[in-house]
Amino acid sequence: MTNSNPSKFTNKELADCYSELILYFETNAGLSNGKLSTKVKGYRRLCDELRLRINSCSTLNEMQNLQLTHPIYQSSQIHFLDVKNNHLKSIFYHLRNAATHAHIKRTTRNGNQVWYLIEHKYKRQIKMIAQIKKPDFWEFVSKAKRMKKA
């Protein structure tokens, strides 16, 4: 029997991945009708508070050449291919796919800190690479969903 939980998530983390990433994306028609935006008040503050570096790439070549800029587990960062011409929609699209295909790995580093490592690939091409502390990840997901243009 194959391992149905290769990421070693807790039951709560599995449920959160399903409800907060997969179900959120599916029940919102792939976010096609959503008004998510990084241009609303609070987005920059959220990234600053979480010390989260976010980098979008416009081409596959740019994405393939990308390396994490700091030694692993020293800074939270998300790098992604902007496939939706909207940063938050693209991030949620890739997070949904990463969760669906078990491309989110849970690891413990620096004592007891839990980190999520994401390396989402499709047809051997990297679409998203990230490292982020577990509490920061869920705070980002929760607050970013509310960042909508009027």
**Residues in helices, as a percent range:** 25-40%
Low confidence ranges? none
Termini separation (Å)?
A: 49 Å
Number of helices: 5
Mean pLDDT: 83
What is the radius of gyration?
15 Å
How are the SSEs ordered, and which strands pair?
Layout: H1 11-27, H2 43-50, E1 52-57, H3 60-64, E2 76-81, H4 87-100, E3 104-109, E4 113-122, E5 125-133, H5 134-144
Parallel strand pairs: 1-2
Antiparallel strand pairs: 2-5, 3-4, 4-5
Structure description:
The protein is α+β, with helices and mostly antiparallel strands. The protein has one domain (11-144). 37% of the residues lie in helices and 25% in strands. The chain is built from 5 helices and 5 strands, in the order ααβαβαβββα. It has helices spanning 11-27, 43-50, 60-64, 87-100, 134-144, and strands at 52-57, 76-81, 104-109, 113-122, 125-133. Strands 1-2-5-4-3 form a 5-stranded mixed β-sheet. α1 (11-27) packs across α4 (87-100). The chain is globular, with a radius of gyration of 15 Å. The model has no long low-confidence stretch (mean pLDDT 83).
What is this structure, in a nutshell?
This protein is α+β, with helices and mostly antiparallel strands and 150 residues long. It has helices at residues 11-27, 43-50, 60-64, 87-100, 134-144; strands at residues 52-57, 76-81, 104-109, 113-122, 125-133.
List keywords for this structure.
globular, 150 residues, 5 helices, alpha+beta
